[in-house]
Target: Phosphonate ABC transporter ATP-binding protein
Amino acid sequence: MEKHMLSLAGLGRRFNATRAVDNVTLDIRPGEFVGVIGRSGAGKSTLLRLINRLIDPTAGRITFGDTDVTALQGRALRQWRRDCAMIFQQFNLVERLDVLTNVLVGRLADHGFLSSMAMRFTDAERTLAIRALDRLEMAPQALQRAGTLSGGQQQRVAIARALVQNPRIMLADEPIASLDPGNATRVMEALRSINRDDGITVLVNLHTLDTARAYCHRIIAMRDGRVFFDGTPRQLTDDVVRDIYGTDGLAEFDAAITSTAAHRRLRQTA
Ligand SMILES: Nc1ncnc2c1ncn2[C@@H]1O[C@H](COP(=O)(O)OP(=O)(O)OP(=O)(O)O)[C@@H](O)[C@H]1O
Model:
């Protein structure tokens, strides 16, 4: 599969007077594992939603290789949404359906209208879905109703569903925000394996710095809709962290900051 650069150029999205995303210019190379951090309201979710065209920009352009993503419509737009799978904080599974069927929903974009209404799948698709579940250690629950699973299990099913879409980019919007630490680790490890072993680019919004530092090659911090920092975890110094979150945002992020020196200093200034 050809590998393309994802480029955002002067990207912006306004909601009335709010500039949720403001003049963002970024290149994301194929195979990168990028974490997006920032205070609540900094524009992280809006950025991800712009990339997979769940919402349209009010300024700027998104390109993937030679494709102008911002101009896509109809079938080409559906193809793009399949190319960049999205994982949400709240999993978005169909609770009354079993786990396997939920994963197979990830294949529906490849089906015509009638076959998707009937939810008819091929044996090859079922095999693919079972394999994806197995990889996330969820195969034993394949026939269980999704609504009966724990949050961590549901998120792993959501990742399996995203995987069978055969995406080039995996977008994850705070995928571990409502999980306990054990499940959060499993979900982050799954994203790491998808990145390393399958070469899929991962772009993940995170609200904990430690997680971003532990998993991401590159960290992008947003503030007021703009890119405020873009670099390696090592370049993300205590001073930069203080600037990203601001002193009044620290209470909110206190738990997230466990680099002890930074922690002490930040508490003193808060
Ligand atoms: N559909 C919408 N209508 C109006 N305003 C919106 C909408 N979506 C986002 N916003 C505003 O845009 C700004 C950025 O929101 P966004 O959700 O992207 O931030 P975030 O960094 O993801 O925050 P959080 O971590 O709380 O999810 C906020 O001021 C938010 O209120």
About this structure: The first helix runs from residue 44 to 51.
